Amino acid sequence: MQISIVIPLLNEQESLHELHDWIVRVMQSNHFLYEIIFIDDGSTDGSWETITQLSEKNEHVRGIRFLRNYGKSQALHAGFKAAQGEVVITMDADLQDNPEEIPELYNLITQEGNQVVSGWKKKRYDSVITKNIPSKLFNWAARKTSGVKLHDFNCGLKAFDHNVVKTIEVHGEMHRYIPVLAKNAGFTKITEKVVQHQARKYGTTKFGAERFINGFLDLITIWFVSKFGRQPMHLFGAMGVLMFIVGFGFSLYLGIDKLFLNPTGRLITQRPQFYIALTAMIMGTQMFLAGFIGEIMVRSRKNDTRYTISNKINL
Asked: Most exposed residue of 67, 75, 121, 295, measured as fewest CB within 10 angstroms of its CB?
């Protein structure tokens, strides 16, 4: 199979028929062997019934239904797990991503040797104040922090080599940072393509301003996990030892000063160095223990259940 198209969705019933027909036209005109995987992330508007109808008339349609809403990252994880195509393409279900981009995305992976191709919505049809400006700030921070030089981390239209989606672990709210996850996993051939953005035709956006706040927090998380996720002792242990040494140094100085240099001076408890030493040694010990406990958790953790699937179609 050449292409797997993974589409996470939440309450997008109105757009599904049109999106499906559009994708099918593109696939047939380019003679692709394909599958369309819809992941219903707990919709309440009849989206699953529509997916069922589409699967009955098109054997290439697959469906995964979550018992409740778990989030886009979990939906993508389920889609990646099920995907069989040589190239895996993700897109949103709201018709803002253009299926006509698929052939070129496919060629950028198969013919030019890229492993990740991220869409760049250079011209957007969203609100300038609530989306465009915050998005530019967010993408600037993401580039500086991650080292991945992309203009649009939030674009849902992306293409991946099959090995990428089978290697990376998408969880939490990390769907924005799949290229960063790919880079951290060792996939370095990452590029971007300017794609056509379209105004939303049906319904309203499912993402509010809080997504940018969550995005920045996730950015910090992914930076930390990529650096110290497997060996937290390298950060907490080092900082703990450093602080303990500082505290011990102050204690040693106070002890020598009180015993030999100025035995008739102020009481040790009346000197600010005493409290600095005490605080530093306590915090150093706590941070060392945090690193030690983190190491134990990393080595003993088991895979958690991230979502519950209630139905599947053609899988």
From this structure: 67
- How far apart, in Å, do the first and last CA atoms of the chain sit? 15
Helices (H), the chain: 13-29, 47-57, 72-82, 102-110, 133-146, 162-167, 178-184, 210-228, 233-256, 272-300
Nearby residues of 157 by Cβ (< 8 Å), 6 or more positions away: 89, 90, 91, 92, 97, 98, 101, 105, 119, 195
pLDDT tens for each residue of 248-257: 999 999 999 8
Q: Do 254 and 280 form a contact (C-beta atoms < 8 A)?
A: no
Q: What is the mean pLDDT of residues 168-179?
A: 84
Residue 117 pLDDT greater than 80, yes or no: yes
Other CB atoms within 10 Å distance of the CB of residue 104: 12
> What is the reported pTM?
0.76
Q: What is the pLDDT of residue 203?
A: 67
Residue with token string 């140094």: 249
Q: How far apart are CA 133 and CA 129, in angstroms?
A: 6
